[in-house]
Specification:
Largest sheet: 7 strands, mixed
Number of domains: 1
Shape: globular
Distance between the termini: 30 Å
Strand order of the largest sheet: 5-6-7-8-9-4-10
CATH architecture: 3-Layer(aba) Sandwich
Number of helices: 7
Order of helices and strands: EHEEEHEHHEEEHEHEH
Strand content: 25-35%
CATH superfamily: Leucyl/phenylalanyl-tRNA-protein transferase, C-terminal domain
């Protein structure tokens, strides 16, 4: 499932992109761990863009237009929010090498955010990596109830409009399954990935 990464305190951005293109992504044991390891799951979580389920409560919230939605305006704020400890999750896998690597990808235009703002404050968001017509979701957070759900709904609609073919969630959770996320075997995922990488889409 995973292989350790050489303890170098840095993940070269070009190596990170090559990893995503082959179905591999990095994680860390904890925020204070200086190393990362590579993960290639036997089953992969995906969220089909043509079968995204919007629960009634979320649909109502979207109609209320409570949050201001922005894209790519505060990457460092989003990754910091995703790395925060919170009830039920005291530690995070987002360590310094991961922060620096994804910040570099953001500067290169390969990493993107969807953000929820309320009264001038960042209250939720998500970030992920783009290659071809694939979006690899990394993490999300909320400081206001349902803010990350709204960001996810906006992400899906944005990816549809922009012609993306694959929304990779890495793993599925009960939370994501509410929106239609499902597990697929590695071989099936790699065929989906190959198809998405052959296409072009602009975030």
């Amino acid at each position: 499932m995973s292989r350790p990464f050489a303890p170098g305190l840095r993940i070269p951005p070009d190596l990170l992109l090559r990893a995503y293109a082959t179905g591999v992504f990095p994680m860390a044991e904890g925020a204070d761990d200086p190393e990362v390891f590579w993960v290639r799951p036997e089953t992969r979580g995906i969220l089909p863009l043509d079968a995204f389920h919007v629960p009634k409560s979320l649909a109502k919230l979207l109609r209320q237009d409570r949050f201001e939605i922005r894209r790519d305006s505060d990457f460092r704020g989003v990754i910091a929010g995703c790395a925060e400890s919170r009830p039920g999750r005291q530690s995070t896998w987002i360590n310094k090498p991961i922060r620096e690597a994804y910040s570099a990808l953001f500067e290169q235009g390969h990493c993107h955010t969807v953000e929820a703002w309320l009264e001038g404050k960042l209250v939720g968001g998500l970030y992920g990596v783009t290659l071809g017509a694939a979006f690899f979701g990394e993490s999300m957070f909320s400081r206001q109830r349902d803010a990350s759900k709204v960001c996810l709904a906006h992400l899906v609609e944005h990816l549809r409009v922009r012609g993306f073919r694959l929304l990779d969630t890495q793993f599925t959770t009960e939370h994501l399954k509410r929106f239609g996320a499902r597990d697929v075997p590695r071989a099936a995922y790699e065929r989906m990935l190959e198809n998405a990488l052959k296409a072009e889409a602009t975030f």
